[in-house]
Design brief:
The complex is a heterodimer of chains A (482) and B (234). In chain A, a hairpin with a 4-residue loop joins strand 3 (68-69) and strand 4. Chain A is an alpha/beta fold and 482 residues long. Chain A has 14 helices and 20 strands. In chain A, strands 10-11-9-12-13-8-14 form a seven-stranded parallel β-sheet. In chain A, strands 15-20-19-16-18-17 form a six-stranded parallel β-sheet, with helices on both faces. In chain A, helix 4 (141-156) packs parallel to helix 5 and helix 13 crosses helix 14. Chain B has nine helices and eight strands. Chain B is globular. With 234 residues, chain B is of the alpha/beta class. In chain B, strands 3-8-7-4 form a four-stranded parallel β-sheet. A two-stranded antiparallel ribbon of chain B has the order 1-2. The mean pLDDT of chain B is 89. In chain B, helix 5 (111-123) packs across helix 7. Classes of the chains: A alpha/beta (482), B alpha/beta (234). Chain A binds chain B through residues 3-4, 7-8, 44, 83-84, 87-93, 100, 102, 105-106, 109, 111, and chain B through 1-2, 4, 9, 101, 105-109, 137-138, 140-146, 150, 153. Chain B: This is Phosphoribosyltransferase. Chain B: Keywords: Glycosyltransferase, Transferase. Chain B: GO terms for molecular function: glycosyltransferase activity.
């Protein structure tokens, strides 16, 4: 059948199936198994003629599911139920006015006559790689304990939360668990909210697992149709998977704003196999999870100390009055300008977090009177990458930033300040992450963290409480030297 | 229910004032920031294609026409084919992105952003039939709707189908000269008599003007007296 003919085939609702029985004598197409195993793709995403797809479906090798549920309006791919994400259009394919989901539109429009196709034939088997881990590094005591629990969770298809402070070295904690999975032929996914992390993690894991095929998936990546044993994906890309992974590792669960959080939970549940392990990594679990940990309702392990065995810097709170009013007059509260002057005089680099771009730019103008090489950066800044590199190279003495640099960026010897720490944008987890920027390297394990505020908030107190608690636990477990 | 911006999905905050209190305001489709990103075509324009002169160097225009239109009009084969085109917005990066999401990603509801402006613009023309530029069958299946038709219907008008595509190579993959010189892309597929009727063609973008002139030519060959066109962007 030519492509021209293919589009003319009517959408046949009677072909929707959800049976999983398979006619074993049917000579199935190996490429189709490779591309569709553990996936949920739209019919039009498939690089096969419709006739061949139909044959596979008739022999029970494919599972078709409707893309949109109408009863309780929801998207089967991304799980959205929020009505504001749905719109209607007159569909030229089926001739009806129908709903489509705008939330996951960028992955190909899914509407009521769309069908999600998954593989229902025999499983794709993955190799059991003997001794997959090629790594000579050594884990800290705290890492060691967590590593062992991760491996056990992988073995027992259990759920585990790894609560590791910023700078604990959480990637290495995964090595044993991934090795355990690879040696037993399990399929693994590491999901993270940010493309940067995918790009950083993929070569790092490839280096220590040289015999394993790794796929790195993010918006615009090439590996889309790779059936790799180890997949590293942004959470968005998870939406193309269906019952694929025996091991699901979710990095930085705290990084998700609430709205995305729900999509993430849905995507994780869809992408993992019914029998699978689920491992969450975070530096600051949300309130509800912390509570579940305390009540013994959630399996967790903490790494309360950094690998360099120094305590986490504890934030200092400094009230600095109605700073916004001062800013509007072109001034910065004296105590905070003194803070900056002292850093400049001592030649110590500093990162200053501001709640909004406008406030940040005003502060920048004031600080530049002290030193014109001070810079600012925000999410939309076209020079974002270049500025961070310049800061790393010590060409910028003080860098002002919005919350975008709250995680990921590791610069050896810096002090950290927040201006307007009372702002709503600075949640407990954001503040813990921000404080976690100081004292990261073994060479310079200390650094000060100062929250300049116009009234203490629950979030500020919660962040300090979390940090003190971790330090206390680290000392108790002998993971901190002094 | 809350209103969300159709482009950035930020909540749209209603502006309360004495005017909004006494006048029934239509719900805004997009937020102020997104709205400011469109550049409406204003000021002096090419009398034929509606291209704004404000962004054109002097050497690219001839009195009231842009060079492109002057070239079309010099060509015996094309002279007078398209009587006039008018467009709403300049084809800036922002507009390009929104239109791409609308037609390539198939976000039909985005037509609502333009509905009011399209309605006003179409009312300014005198015409007998409002004709969307057709898609090929394959393209229509792929996208699920015809974007030109979506613009017409969403603005509250009735489209008339007079044309269909002969074949379906993508316009955007061709050079200007290819677009101008390749053979007929449309055919006349209706029993309607066009004797001395005025047609208003509708499309999403005016790029070289070739598509619209191809359509206009076949309509005139079948009896249309005047053919105008309207596009969202130029």
């Amino acid at each position: 059948m030519t492509k021209e003919e293919t589009y003319l085939l009517p959408v046949d609702e009677s072909s929707f199936t959800d049976r999983l029985s398979t006619d074993r004598s049917f000579p199935f197409h190996a490429d189709m198994q490779k591309i569709l195993f553990g996936k949920q793709l739209l019919l039009e995403e498939l690089p096969f003629p419709l006739e061949e797809i139909r044959q596979h479906e008739q022999h029970g090798y494919l599972l078709f599911r409707k893309g949109i549920k109408r009863e309780l309006l929801s998207c089967v791919r991304c799980g959205t139920t929020d009505a504001s994400w749905f719109a209607e259009f007159p569909c030229a394919r089926c001739g009806k006015v129908e709903f489509y989901c705008r939330k996951c539109l960028m992955m190909g429009r899914i509407s009521e006559c769309s069908q999600l196709v998954s593989w229902a034939g025999p499983d794709l088997n993955f190799r059991q790689i003997a001794d997959p881990l090629q790594w000579s590094g050594k884990l800290s005591t705290g890492q060691q304990a967590a590593s062992q629990q991760v491996a056990e969770a992988v073995e027992n298809s259990a759920e585990l939360l790894v609560w590791a402070v910023a700078g604990a070295g959480k990637t290495e904690v995964l090595f044993a668990g991934i090795a355990e999975a690879l040696s037993t032929g399990k399929r693994i996914c590491v999901a993270t909210p940010r493309t940067d992390v995918v790009l950083e993690l993929a070569p790092r894991l490839q280096k220590v697992f040289p015999d394993c095929k790794i796929a790195a998936l993010y918006g615009g990546s090439e590996d889309r149709h790779e059936a790799a044993q180890l997949t590293i994906a942004t959470t968005h890309q998870l939406l193309r998977f269906y019952r694929a992974f025996e091991v699901m590792i979710v990095d930085e669960v705290d990084a998700f704003p609430y709205s995305i959080d729900q999509t993430l939970q849905y995507a994780v549940e869809q992408a993992r196999k019914p029998k699978s392990s689920l491992i969450y990594l975070t530096a600051t679990p949300k309130k509800q999870w912390q509570q579940q940990c305390r009540l013994g309702k959630r399996a967790f392990i903490t790494i309360p100390a950094r690998y360099h065995r120094h305590p986490l810097p504890v934030p200092q709170f400094i009230w600095f009055g109605n700073w916004e009013k001062q800013l509007s007059k072109g001034k910065l509260p004296a105590i905070s300008s003194k803070w900056a002057e002292a850093r400049l005089a001592a030649g110590k680099q500093a990162l200053i977090f501001a709640p909004k771009i406008a406030a940040m730019e005003k502060t920048l103008r004031i600080l530049r009177r002290m030193d014109p090489s001070i810079e600012s950066v925000h999410a939309e800044d076209p020079d974002r990458k270049a500025k961070v590199i310049k800061f790393r190279n010590k060409e910028i003495p003080i860098l002002l930033t919005t919350t975008i640099l709250e995680r990921g960026v590791t610069i050896p010897n810096i002090d950290v300040a927040v201006i307007g720490a009372e702002d709503r944008i600075f949640t407990e987890s954001a503040l813990v992450q921000i404080a976690g920027r100081a004292g990261r390297s073994a060479e310079f394990p200390t650094g000060t963290v100062t929250f300049f505020h116009y009234g203490k908030t629950e979030a500020m107190l919660g962040a300090r409480r979390q940090i003190l608690m971790m330090n206390k636990e680290g000392r108790k477990k002998g993971l901190i030297d002094r | 229910m809350k209103d969300y911006c159709l482009i950035c999905h930020q909540e749209i905050k209603a502006n309360f004032s004495w005017t909004t209190l006494f006048r029934e305001e239509k719900a805004a489709k997009i937020c102020g920031d997104c709205s400011d990103n469109f550049s409406p075509i204003t000021g002096e324009i090419c009398e034929i294609c509606g291209r704004p002169f404000a962004f054109l160097e002097a050497e690219y225009k001839l009195e009231k026409r842009c060079n492109d239109c002057a070239r079309w009009e010099e060509d015996e084969q094309w002279r007078g084919t398209l009587d006039q085109n008018r467009s709403l917005y300049r084809y800036t990066d922002f507009t390009k992105e929104v239109i791409a999401k609308f037609k390539f990603r198939g976000d039909y509801v985005l037509a609502e952003i333009f509905a009011e402006d399209v309605q006003l613009a179409l009312q300014a023309f005198h015409y007998d039939y409002l004709v969307p530029i057709p898609l090929s069958g394959e393209r229509l299946y792929e996208r699920g709707f015809n974007q030109a038709e979506a613009l017409i219907v969403t603005a509250g008008f009735e489209p008339t189908q007079l044309l269909s595509r002969v074949h379906s190579e993508k316009q955007s993959k061709k050079s200007r000269s290819e677009r101008i010189h390749h053979p007929q892309v449309f055919e006349f597929t209706t029993d309607l008599q066009l004797n001395s009727k005025t047609i208003l063609l509708v499309d999403d973008i005016y790029t070289t003007g070739s598509t619209l002139r191809q359509a206009a030519k076949i309509l005139k060959r079948n009896g249309a007296a005047k053919v105008y066109s309207f596009t969202l962007a130029r």
